[in-house]
Input
Amino acid sequence: MGIVMRVTALCALALLTGCASVNSGDDAQVRGPMEFDDVEVKVAELDSQYVRQGAAVAPQTITQVVPGISKSDVRGLLGRPANETTQRWWQYHINLPLDAEGDYLVCQYGVAFDPADQVSSTKWRRPQCSALYDELVRPVVPEVQEITLFSDVLFGYDSATLSSEGLRELDLAAQVVAGKMMQLERVVVVGHSDRIGSEKYNNALSQRRAEAVRNYLVSKGVDGYLMSAEGRGAREPLVHCAGSAITAALKQCLQPNRRVQIMIYGKR
Output
């Protein structure tokens, strides 16, 4: 009953929602998909004939209705149209979801056919419906948030054991990752090293450090199924420093390369 009340309210705005009455006689048989009569009705005079009952069709299914497919293909995707006897075009009443609460907008969708009974064009009757549909099928690109922590803060020299200072830094990071401001899709922890030492050693050290950070975040409430850890050794340096002798100056110069990235992917 609640949804009927919602749709009835929408129909009161006849020219805004596409709920106006449509001719169903011979004249309608020769019209195009978007050639409808608009009818304005006072709210007090509304009755059940002005409430369109739409079908729930997934927006991604509607994207498959493209020029060139046959009438049988359209029927398989969208079901029977409201005017199946019409040869030139079919009209559908489709429920497009408005929110997560179950409210929806009943929209008229026209499919035109060429003489070979293949789709020639499609169009939503109302711009509000077209805009809502475009929003529903628009690809959602996950937002990426990055937290970079220097390994010299997180760990002791040549160690994958978190220091007391590192634990404090990760406590702050855990609040961001586990916070409810973003719907998490995945979290990738990436360890990096400088170029001092062998490639094999640096790869292993950066992996152990990434795993240490991942495990700590899991212990603080981040879903472990969403998290992965990888070590990339010295392959992605932020800075390049001259010299090969291992001196205090070289270590200091290479310090930005010794880091752990926490890459947070999700939607707000």
